[in-house]
């Protein structure tokens, strides 16, 4: 008689994290980010009752933890930011990826604007700045000239964040197919706070 197959590393990990469905979902998405997409410095952020969200409905909803981490490459570049980079002679490879927040969700989970606003309220106003450490002649594989452009770029980034010129806060919505017959596929969507102004070609 054949023995049962060994459980996968993900199944073993989920079974050791707790019985709550949200814990299992968060663990599944964290595992996917770490091993499938090669993110580093992953953390789970559990909202407290002292978070900025107000109202009983938001507090009930906002027990969903967030995941944050650093992807191997940048996830999104605003079109105006891209134009600034081109004018400054900067490439995507010159700019280090920043910490990105991820909201774990299941495919049939319902969301409202109020719930999503509570998530954005929880996000920090400023993002971790990647360090520009390196030798005298080289900064992250770039020349001194590029390093000077990077310093200007980060100044412009701070200004653009304050005015939301390059868009407001962003989050990655991770949606797992976990329903009846779901295969566990995870799809990621970029969600931006506020209204995005249509662009003219």
Automatic annotation (TrEMBL):
Residues 46-66 have a biased composition (Polar residues). Residues 46-71 are annotated as: Disordered. One of its GO terms (cellular component) is tRNA-intron endonuclease complex. One of its GO terms (molecular function) is nucleic acid binding. GO terms for biological process: tRNA-type intron splice site recognition and cleavage. It holds the Pfam family Sen15. Gene3D superfamilies: 3.40.1350.10. The keyword Secreted does not apply. Keywords: tRNA processing. Residues 28-129, 151-201 form the tRNA-splicing endonuclease subunit Sen15 domain. PANTHER family: TRNA-SPLICING ENDONUCLEASE SUBUNIT SEN15 (PTHR28518). Belongs to the SEN15 family. This is tRNA-splicing endonuclease subunit Sen15 domain-containing protein. It comes from Elaphomyces granulatus. The lineage of its organism: Eukaryota, Fungi, Dikarya, Ascomycota, Pezizomycotina.
């Amino acid at each position: 008689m054949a023995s049962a197959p060994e459980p996968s590393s993900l199944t073993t990990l989920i079974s050791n994290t707790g019985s709550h469905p949200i814990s299992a979902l968060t663990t599944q998405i964290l595992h996917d980010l770490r091993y499938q997409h090669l993110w580093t410095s992953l953390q789970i952020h559990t909202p407290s009752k002292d978070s900025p969200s107000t109202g009983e409905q938001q507090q009930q909803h906002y027990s969903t933890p967030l995941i944050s981490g650093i992807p191997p490459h940048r996830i999104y570049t605003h079109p105006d930011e891209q134009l600034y980079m081109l004018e400054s002679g900067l490439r995507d490879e010159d700019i280090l990826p920043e910490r990105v927040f991820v909201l774990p969700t299941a495919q049939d989970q319902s969301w409202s604007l109020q719930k999503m606003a509570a998530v954005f309220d929880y996000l920090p106003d400023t993002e971790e700045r990647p360090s520009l450490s390196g030798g005298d002649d080289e900064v992250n594989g770039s020349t001194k000239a590029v390093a000077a452009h990077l310093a200007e770029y980060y100044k412009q980034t701070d200004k653009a964040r304050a005015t939301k010129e390059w868009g407001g806060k962003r989050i990655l919505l991770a949606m797992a197919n976990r329903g009846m017959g779901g295969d566990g596929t995870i799809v990621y969507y970029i969600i931006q706070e506020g209204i995005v102004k249509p662009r003219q070609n």
